[in-house]
TrEMBL record, chain A:
Cell location: Nucleus
PB1 domain boundaries: 126-205
Subunit structure, interactors included: Homodimers and heterodimers.
Keyword Glycoprotein: no
Species name: Sesamum indicum
Any one GO BP annotation for this protein: regulation of DNA-templated transcription
Family: Belongs to the Aux/IAA family.
Keyword annotations: Auxin signaling pathway, Nucleus, Repressor, Transcription, Transcription regulation
Official protein name in the record: Auxin-responsive protein
Automatic annotation (TrEMBL), chain B:
Ranges where the record places region Disordered: 1-27
GO MF entries: auxin binding
Lineage of the organism: Eukaryota, Viridiplantae, Streptophyta, Embryophyta, Tracheophyta
Protein name, UniProt field: Protein TRANSPORT INHIBITOR RESPONSE 1-like
Keyword Nucleus appears in the UniProt entry: yes
Domain of life: Eukaryota
UniProt pathway: Protein modification; protein ubiquitination
Main location: nucleus
Gene Ontology CC: nucleus; SCF ubiquitin ligase complex
């Protein structure tokens, strides 16, 4: 362990001949990731919480300095990742492939999605699911990771299907969970819903 | 242009004052006729430098415009020089924007270009855009301004929606190509496909595989049925297997196919039907899509694989056994894109089944290492290099590598032109010896004399860059991340690689001295990107001051100290500083 730590440090100790540079701060991500990378092969569970250096959120002017990463209940990992922006260099729209299913919309890190600029449009982890509205022939897709609550999701869906004049309350949202069952949305916490919903259906109340 | 000739002297005037150009042996028409046969960009560039009448003849006969960096020149300058353009290729954002390293609204909006083209190139036929922002308004302008418009490619573009595509479908009567590759939009909506008129039948290329939308299958089927010249069809995953079968029945002549979703419960009858539909596609050279394909349904493809030269499996995570079985049917494969779930075992099968392979790209299924899967290692790469000696292009994502393996790999395959190795953990050494990976890349640049593109990774000292500068004489593109020890490394590259055009660097200890050492070089390059390095605002300002023909742009991260230049983008330009730069882009 000590040896590996040293390796990580020495790889950067020769860097930069300018003593005025504060390498530490900017190398922070490097150190963390190098450290993590070296630990990767060890089976022992990680308990260190690692922090993302979250870059500015230009579009709405907020400043996120550092955020803790949400530990997802759905995950069976022990490690909380430190995710570098743009690394590894895979195109942001490429889907990731989960452990059990062939293709899962990637597990969503709420912070990461907004971190480090959104040049690619979809962010690091988008979660598109199909959604059908009762009575409309052609279905659509919606990115669950860009919502925070059932309300905003339903409002977006209503707008998507062009029914802007209708109220959110006139619709009920059902979803198909991982077991294939159709369930009424709203009973489980938002995060749980986001990770179990495979597809959505929007129906007018009273049916 | 020949500096000895004055700008205004006509080529066959008989001026007695000042130097005059000797009379041209050819009348202009002959020169123009001859030059109209020259297609290559580089040749045309050379031609235009010979003398003034050649410059003029060249500009009048050029019909294809290629602009590798949309900010290196302006629409006005282009319009003035080239009066007769029919085909335009425009590239916008730097490549690192693919990896979320540029904020949204950075720029590269095509609109001002289209406005100019509408004015001066009414006979425009082709537009190929890469990494540009394309709004619906722009697509509408495009659709209405060019009556002869034929081919549109939007590669890694953003900014448009259903409405823009509707305009294209409705108004471009002569459209032969609509190719939307990797373009990310929130929700396009699928109504556009239904906007092609009932009598529209000229489509040869239709690719909407990356779009998030559901199209009307009936309209798609009718469209495919009408377009008898269709040779490329790539649908998205909203199209089911059975629907695909119906499309194939209408278009067995397809040369390139992107399937829809391959996950469907099929009856035995349906299975047979789709198998026979695939077998009837005797011209298939390129196959992609295959979302959610499983070992159960992959075999329906086998009949179509004999003539396959490019198999793109980067959207389906196959296991080694089903992958190996599929490869047996693809002996003519030249290009393969695959996900690392096939593991080393799968790559061994590749080495045995596809001796003609020239290009291999292995993508990570789990780039953020959440599931701790093995993926591929140096062993898989070695196996491929042993079986596929013609390999010249590789993109390989892995979690471990050794110097010895890379040395052997390039000995087996010395013809690499593109070597992109991504050891996913930053700064990782040779996992057997714990040494830096310097010797690996030394071997690459020494052995592969034709190398044009190189991406390095792993633990690397300045030695790697000394080797690159010394040996990589044909290198045009270099990508560096988490590597190097000091300014010296970057200086070696800048001083050494005569053909360098694009240099992209992130998270390296290169500072102002390195940045400034390349000042003259950058004028001969397309661009330099440096992010999270040791460059300061002072260094950037100095560069900008000394090199007025370079645009030096800095994007700062909020919260970092004012002296740091967090993201630096340097490129040559005859158009001067950007007029459309958003507030977070500082032009120095």
């Amino acid at each position: 362990m000590e040896l590996q730590l040293e390796l990580a440090l020495s790889s950067s100790s020769g860097r930069g001949s300018d003593p005025n540079q504060d390498c530490n701060r900017r190398r922070k991500r490097c150190f963390d990731t190098a450290f993590l990378g070296v630990m990767e092969s060890v089976d022992s569970p990680q308990t260190l919480p690692l922090l993302i250096w979250d870059e500015k959120q230009r579009s709405n002017g907020e400043l996120h300095e550092q955020k803790r990463i949400h530990d997802l209940a759905a995950s069976d990992r022990n490690v909380e990742d430190d995710v570098l922006v743009g690394w590894p260099p895979v195109k942001s729209w490429r889907k990731q492939f989960g452990h059990h299913s062939r293709r899962v919309c990637a597990t969503n890190y709420v912070n990461v999605e907004h971190g480090g600029g959104d040049g690619g449009g979809r962010g690091l982890n988008s979660m598109y699911v199909k959604v059908k509205m009762e009575g409309v022939g052609i279905g659509r897709k919606v990115d669950l990771s860009s919502h925070r609550s059932y309300q905003t999701l339903i409002a977006k869906l209503i707008a998507m299907f062009g029914k802007c004049e209708d109220n959110v309350e006139t619709y009920k949202l059902t979803y198909q969970d991982k077991d294939g069952d159709w369930v009424l949305a709203g009973d489980v916490p938002w995060e749980t819903f986001v990770h179990s919903a495979q597809r959505l259906k929007l129906q007018k109340n009273g049916y | 242009m020949d500096p000895d000739q004055s700008e205004d002297s006509p080529s066959n005037s008989a001026n007695s004052h000042g130097p005059t150009q000797p009379q041209s042996p050819f009348p202009d028409e002959v020169l123009e006729k001859v030059l109209s046969f020259i297609d290559s960009r580089k040749d045309r560039s050379s031609v235009s430098l010979v003398r003034k009448d050649w410059y003029n003849a060249e500009r009048w006969t050029r019909s294809k415009l290629f602009i590798g960096n949309c900010y290196s020149v302006s629409p006005e300058i282009v319009a003035r020089r080239f009066p007769r353009i029919k085909s335009v290729t425009l590239k916008g954002k730097p490549r690192f924007s693919d990896f979320n390293m540029l904020p949204r609204d950075w720029g590269a909006n095509v609109h001002s270009w289209l406005v100019m083209f509408a004015k001066v190139y009414p006979f425009l036929e082709e537009l190929r855009l890469k990494r540009m922002t394309v709004t619906d308004e722009s697509l509408e302008l495009l659709a209405k301004s060019f009556p002869r418009f034929k081919a549109l490619t939007l590669s890694s573009c953003d900014g448009f929606s259903d409405n823009g595509l509707k305009a294209i479908a409705s108004h471009c009567r002569n459209l032969t190509e609509l190719d939307i590759q990797d373009s990310v939009t929130d929700d396009v909506g699928g109504g556009w496909l239904s906007c092609f008129p009932e009598n529209f039948a000229s489509l040869e290329v239709l690719n909407f595989s990356s779009l998030n939308c559901e199209v009307s299958f009936d309209d798609l089927e009718r469209l495919v049925g009408r377009c008898k010249s269709l040779r490329v069809l790539k649908v998205n995953d909203s199209i089911t297997l059975d629907q695909l079968r119906r499309l194939l029945v209408h278009a067995p002549q397809l040369m390139e196919l992107g399937t829809g979703s391959f996950m469907q419960e099929l009856t035995p009858r349906q299975y047979e039907d789709i198998e026979s539909a695939f077998s009837n596609c005797r011209n298939l050279q390129v196959l992609s899509g295959l979302w959610e394909a499983t070992s159960l349904y992959l075999p329906v493809l086998y009949g179509a694989c004999a003539s396959l030269t490019f198999l793109n499996l980067s959207d389906v995570a196959l296991q080694s056994s089903e992958f190996a079985k599929l490869l047996v049917h693809c002996p003519n494969l030249r290009r393969l894109w695959v996900i690392d779930t096939v593991e080393d075992k799968g790559l061994e099968a590749l080495g045995s089944s596809c001796p003609l392979l020239e290009e291999l790209r292995v993508f990570p299924s789990d780039p953020y290492d959440r599931h701790h899967r093995d993926g591929v290692t140096e062993l898989g790469f070695l196996a491929v290099s042993r079986g596929c000696r013609k390999l010249r292009y590789v993109l390989y994502f892995c979690r471990r590598m050794t110097n010895a393996a890379v040395v052997t790999i390039v000995q087996n395959c010395p013809d690499f032109t593109h070597f992109r190795l991504c050891i996913m953990t930053p700064g990782q050494p040779d996992y057997l010896t714990n040494e830096p990976m310097d010797e690996a890349f030394a071997a690459v640049v020494k052995t592969c004399t034709k190398l044009k593109r190189l991406s390095v990774s792993g633990l690397l000292t300045d030695l790697t860059f000394e080797y690159i500068g010394k040996y990589a004489k044909n290198l045009e593109t270099l990508s560096v991340a988490f590597a190097g020890s000091s300014d010296w490394g970057m200086q070696c590259v800048l001083e050494g690689c005569p053909k360098l055009r694009k240099l992209e660097i992130r998270d390296c200890p290169f500072g102002n001295a390195a940045l400034l050492s390349g000042r003259e070089k950058y004028e001969m390059m397309r661009s330099l990107w440096m992010s999270s390095c040791n460059v300061t605002m002072k260094g950037c300002r100095l560069l900008a001051r000394e090199m007025p023909r370079l645009n030096v742009e800095v994007i700062k991260d909020e919260g970092n100290d004012d002296g740091q230049a967090d993201r630096v983008y340097v490129y040559r330009s005859v158009a001067g500083p950007r007029r459309d730069a958003p507030p977070f882009v500082l032009t120095l």
